[in-house]
Amino acid sequence: RGLSVGVFLRLTGLLIPNFVAVILPITCFVVVQFVYQRLASDRELTVMRAAGLSQFALARPAIAMAGLTMVACLLLDLWLVPASFTQFRQFQFEIRNRLAAFLLQEGVFNTVSDNMTIYVRTRDSDGTLHGIMIEDGRQPNSHATILAQSGRLVGAESAPRVLLINGSRQELDRQNGRLNVLTFAENTIDLVQSSGNTDQRLRDVGELSLTELLSDNPPALLSIGNEGKLRVEIHRRLTSPLTAVSFAMIALYASLTGGFQRHGGLMRPMAAVVMVVALLALGLAFTNLAIRNTALIPLLWLHAVLPGLAVVFALFAPEVSQPALRMPLPSERG
């Protein structure tokens, strides 16, 4: 809508931490799967097992990487993502309420906000507007259509306004169905999203810090309709990093179990990919269900922890109950 490339890059950059927090557990799974499948296809895992390395010793690098990924995700979800999302929303608010109104394009319907549309037939080089039509729906009970021959934008430092000259304001009375028409020589219209204080905005639950989420008194100006979103957001930020460990363990199980195949096998890696995709879908479903019914919040913890624990038991339990035999080194032979 006429904004500069710098504004676009700034808005996009403020969303990158959120994208990284979402993609990091999946990236950890892909890396572990690729590296260990490559080791298996090159028979390096077979050689290391023959040298006496246990399953846990083989899995140790992947576990360390999963732990680092989990810590990085915790830092992102608990600190960096809320901070960057707050800056994004604030900058977006400033653009919509203060900057976009001064970038009205002539000959098109400009959507200034969700409930206000402005049409300008022509615009002079000095900023004078001609042929103005404003559809103002900020007041649900008094939807208005405003027409004016000319006008100009004023109030660049605070909330933007348009000074209308020689026009009319038409409102439909919902009680009797009568059309009320008011003509004016001059009139000023605020081009803001609401009729309230333009210096304040509704905050999204994703902007709140962990301290604010755990507070007994929710912050004012919060754009949520129920308490469930607050409670679910707390548990989502704490459980989402744990999925990095579960995904890495699934990749390990697919790579370290099963017999050796000379030309490699695709069944176990594909099964691991399908399982991770299913877990991602279940995570979204459990989050939506928990928002509707907070009693289902434990499902978020089960989804994040249970797959990893199950894989750990299946992968390392046989080794604990029956230690692997180690081939003697040449120096140890009689």
Task: Give your account of this protein's structure.
With 334 residues, this protein is of the alpha+beta class. The protein has eight helices and six strands, in the order H-H-H-E-E-E-E-E-E-H-H-H-H-H. It has a six-stranded antiparallel β-sheet, with no helix packed on it. Helix 1 packs parallel to helix 6 and helix 5 (228-239) runs antiparallel to helix 7 (267-292). Residues 194-198 have low confidence and may be disordered.
In DSSP terms (H or I, runs of 4 or more residues), the helix count works out at 8
Strand count: 6
Q: Numbering strands along the chain, what is their spatial order in the largest sheet?
A: 1-2-3-4-5-6
Q: What portion of residues is helical?
A: 40-55%
Biggest pleated-sheet summary: 6 strands, antiparallel
Which blocks of ≥5 consecutive residues have pLDDT under 50? 194-198
- Indicate the overall shape: elongated
**Oligomer state of the chains in this structure:** single chain
Structural class determined from secondary elements: alpha+beta
Order of helix and strand elements from N to C terminus: HHHEEEEEEHHHHH
Mean pLDDT: 83
Beginning-to-end CA distance, first to last residue: 83 Å
Proportion of residues in β-strands:
15-25%
Radius of gyration: 30 Å
Offer a few descriptive terms:
elongated, 17% strand, 334 residues, six-stranded antiparallel beta sheet
Produce a short descriptive summary.
This protein has eight helices and six strands, in the order αααββββββααααα. With 334 residues, the chain is α+β, with helices and mostly antiparallel strands. A hairpin with a 7-residue loop joins strand 3 (129-136) and strand 4.
